[in-house]
Amino acid sequence: MKVAKFGGSSVSNAEQIKKVLDIVNADKDRKIIIVSAPGKRHKEDVKTTDLLLRLYEKVLAGIDYTAKKQEIIQRYADIINDLEMSDDLLEQIDDTLESFIKQLKDKPERLQDALLSCGENFNAQLIATYNNSRGIPTRYISPGDAGITVTDLPQNAQVLDQSYEALYKLRDYDEKLIIPGYFGMSRQNYVVTFPRGGSDITGAIVSRGVRADLYENFTDVSGIFRANPTIVPNPLSIDEITYREMRELSYAGFGVFHDEALQPLYKDRIPVVIKNTNRPNDTGTFIRHDREINSNNVVSGISCDKGFTVLSIKKYLMNRQVGFTRKVLGILEDYNISFDHMPSGIDNISIIMRSKEIENVEQKVLNDIRQRCDVDELSVEHDLAILMIVGEGMHRIIGTANMITHALAESKINLRMMNQGASEISMMFGIDVDDADKAVKATYEYCYNGEALQI
Amino acid sequence: MKVAKFGGSSVSNAEQIKKVLDIVNADKDRKIIIVSAPGKRHKEDVKTTDLLLRLYEKVLAGIDYTAKKQEIIQRYADIINDLEMSDDLLEQIDDTLESFIKQLKDKPERLQDALLSCGENFNAQLIATYNNSRGIPTRYISPGDAGITVTDLPQNAQVLDQSYEALYKLRDYDEKLIIPGYFGMSRQNYVVTFPRGGSDITGAIVSRGVRADLYENFTDVSGIFRANPTIVPNPLSIDEITYREMRELSYAGFGVFHDEALQPLYKDRIPVVIKNTNRPNDTGTFIRHDREINSNNVVSGISCDKGFTVLSIKKYLMNRQVGFTRKVLGILEDYNISFDHMPSGIDNISIIMRSKEIENVEQKVLNDIRQRCDVDELSVEHDLAILMIVGEGMHRIIGTANMITHALAESKINLRMMNQGASEISMMFGIDVDDADKAVKATYEYCYNGEALQI
């Protein structure tokens, strides 16, 4: 059994939806389909989810929202018209939006989740109805009915383990099933959304629940590139990548597959393939637990992400003071700050985190560290970029670090930090944000077009 | 005012002691002299401190120790004879040893410290007496009388701050003062020794206490080499190095100057010079707070130390779990384990420590981590060597990392770990212990004889 998930651009209009259903109906193993909200139809278009967000903002501000609501209904009306379907659904859409607004206007965070979930939810209903009308037995199933039970924190749902057992029962249906992505139901019976881009997460959870043989993630690209194509022209694409590599790359800026979606798959080793709705016969990129490593694919990909802050602490004889680092990390924990890297020496540590983790409490954190940790020097730098070179087995190849640092030195890029762990599949380089694109280009050239393969 | 400390080989026999006193008496600013116990007189000789340790072991085992005691007394008898001094001191030495053995035989740790302190203590008395006999007003002062008050943990004395005020009064003496190194007195009135090599520490504490203009540390080499001369033939020597560089290098294996001795000096910025008793006119190596950096001295030195253990922990989505690393470090703290480096990524950390920190409790630590931290994978590797490339400002020079990794790659040395922090003066490379010497040779060549200077 396969679970197939289709992203926003794949279900943005009637023509795309027909393509999707051609793909779905062409393979009897494609039993469960996760759909996103209608995405952009052209470059200047607005995603349905963003229209819903604007509707929410108007409701919250207490101003007239009718026009905004109509705009949303019109998105679905266009699709329904083009698919020559009955417009019964439109009335239902209007009713649902009004009913959420009425019930939840005093609970803004709940209202936001409920309204945002509508983009996927209406689309799933629409697509199920249409596929049925084409003579293929198809059933819409809401996340609640499917059994996707999540934690109750708005905009940040985490799946609860009980979901997996419930989802397994989806195997009993004979029809094809269409499930909206991006949200689940809490035990308190609220709609709660996953972080944005969360349809990938729904697909992963469902894939694990039904023990799918393959999770097909359909997007608008024929797989994952080895580097960002807006920086490197025509980059190579990746045939095969491991979960751990994918996680490092998506964490560091690869937008194709939501990194949180890997967790459920990782546990049961369910393979994923990233495919192109518009070119379904292209092989795509497989994400698996293991991959074969040869001299041509040591480095899987190169990513560079911006917006990092680094806290640097110096303390003479730091390594002698058992518990010092723990105390510093305890302060970060007090402010619920998660960090990403921590290069350290005998007398200093640097803690690297996304700037958004700390920006609102930076002064408080610094004061606490000064007061509680008796440091010699404490400094903060913003605007750091993190270059990640990712590849399984890379650390076993003599000269990988040399290859990368050589490429960076030749491009006159200063390495402000470096971090490579014992069993790592990645090397991290901290660089100035202004060097970010140059660093990606230089290391890409060196890894894939240069001397790298000879080492 | 200068404080001069003379190491064991500088005071190992009559001839050396004469050299020392020629140096001391040649400069009226050399007011306070710290002496070690008599060291080896030739390669196969045994240091007095080791003779004392053997005496202690015999006493502890309850077997006849007379011969061992006589051997110790003979060391001083040889010196006294050669200096043509009265042998009154020998009786006093015998009495002191017997009295410690009698008083402390039921407190083995106290006995050990008391006996070990005798090597320095007898030598200081001998040297003071002899210099007086040459007509130079000289006074022996015990650490207790000098005011060196320390914590009460045997073999691991830490100076207490009150010492500094007491030591300042040494400035009032007109005579030259001879103080034995290596031990202080606890408030509980026990002799407590510093870690071995601790005469450097005594010198540093006294230098700070008397606000010395310079701390001269006399040894048997004309300064500090840029790399271990038993590995690199005829290495360059260092003219000037900072406290922080020295600390990194001595921590990583440079034996010339005890790293703990830097702390008191660092606080008051008292410069140190490492000089050669046998070639007192050689300039030596200055250790200061700052140094001038030019393209020829970016890298101060290269060191490689063996005997490290690395704990590697993998946990999927580790960086999301606020507090995870703190929890792991809390376990190390429970076992009083200090660690030296911690390269980390978004899903893993490697904690590098000296093997002796963990070897007795390794299984317990691993079990605790497994039980309390819900890790995906936990592994331990022993026999890691740590290569440290140390230099102030190194991180500002584009290409330093490249230079080093290139040298290592050319020598086919695999980098198992790498760590360079935001404001670091060092780069750390984790390598196999078998590659240690090769790595020092290769990086030395590259940094000092190779293309490095052109970058």
From TrEMBL, chains A, B:
Residues 388-444 form the Aspartokinase ACT domain. InterPro entries: AceGlu_kinase-like_sf (IPR036393), ACT-like_dom_sf (IPR045865), ACT_Aspartokinase (IPR054352), AKIII_YclM_N (IPR035804), Asp/Glu/Uridylate_kinase (IPR001048), Asp_kin_monofn (IPR005260), Asp_kinase (IPR001341), AsparK_Bifunc_asparK/hSer_DH (IPR042199). Keywords: Amino-acid biosynthesis, ATP-binding, Diaminopimelate biosynthesis, Kinase, Nucleotide-binding, Transferase. Belongs to the aspartokinase family. Residues 2-276 form the Aspartate/glutamate/uridylate kinase domain. It comes from Staphylococcus hsinchuensis. It comes from the Bacteria. GO terms for molecular function: aspartate kinase activity. It catalyses: L-aspartate + ATP = 4-phospho-L-aspartate + ADP. This is Aspartokinase. Catalyzes the phosphorylation of the beta-carboxyl group of aspartic acid with ATP to yield 4-phospho-L-aspartate, which is involved in the branched biosynthetic pathway leading to the biosynthesis of amino acids threonine, isoleucine and methionine. CDD domains: AAK_AKiii-YclM-BS, ACT_AKiii-YclM-BS_1, ACT_AKiii-YclM-BS_2.
